[in-house]
Design a protein that fits this description.
Structural class: mainly alpha
Strand order of the largest sheet: 3-4-5
Number of strands: 5
Shape: elongated
Helix content: 40-55%
Order of helices and strands: EEHEEHHEHHHHHHHH
Length: 333
Amino acid sequence: NTVQLWNNSALDVREFEALLARIDARVPVRFLFTQCYAGAFARLVHPLAKDTLELAPGERCGFLAEGPDRPAEGCSAAINSDDYRDYSTYFFAALSGRTRRGERLPNDPDRDRDGRVSLYEAHLYALRNAHSNDLPRSTSEDFLERWHPRALDWSLALESAQGARPEDNPYFVLAAEVTQALGLNGTPAQIAQAIRKRAGAYQARHQALEQEQGRIEHEIQAVQGEIQQALEWRWPEAGMPYTRAHRRFLQQDLDAAQEFILAHARYPGLVTQQARHAEINDELLANERDQTQMEKVERLQKLARLRSRFDRHASAATQAAYRRLLACERRPL
């Protein structure tokens, strides 16, 4: 994955890590990536950005809006700044104590009650409160997933984080809070079944909306072509770009052509179809946000199980590396 730069240049993950490696190891480096496919840059905490548990020298950690293969909320159809729900909106709201619109936060991001909000707490706040497409992660969470013992996959799904201390396993607490906020109640098996049911319904709605939108796009193109054909029958020079006749048309007949289009019998229907097309964009975005909440609950539950297992089975050296990442992430600004 790469960061796209000016003049069609780019900086990939390994090149970025090479730049960070030139910084004095005594200087803490923390990063926040809010772009699409940002998750690949979690590797910046490892030497040469390798797929390893070894950490680079010094203090280096970060937060990422999405996984390495997912677009971020900022690439959605949302254009109203009051309705922005991207990861950074919630992350910086936690740090500032106010929402983007200056309102009080729905809950206190200071989970350890020390009077300060760390970057890690801002990240947890975003996980708890964001109803968006983003499925963010931190470098310490990526570390847990990188450690994940594949040979024990069969038992991981059967384990529960029940009994874990909340201060040691925030993902257990977050998963419970999010499921409650989403109205998912009952036993773990019942919650899992409800998640699958909702996810299936969201997927079916997504397909139905896309099919409707595809049909409308076809109809819009057909009507536009019909109106354009009628326009060019009346003003042939309208269909002759880069000619003097076309220039003369633009100078002399543009207003009349506009009135001709507005008076066309198919024009009102075209406007209606275009409006519906825009509505479907909004409905798709809302549906995708709802669907992401199901994925978020499953991810939080997985992280809770991983963290519980990690605390019991990871080696002392691996646990020390993880604590280093957490210490970096938990440091306040």
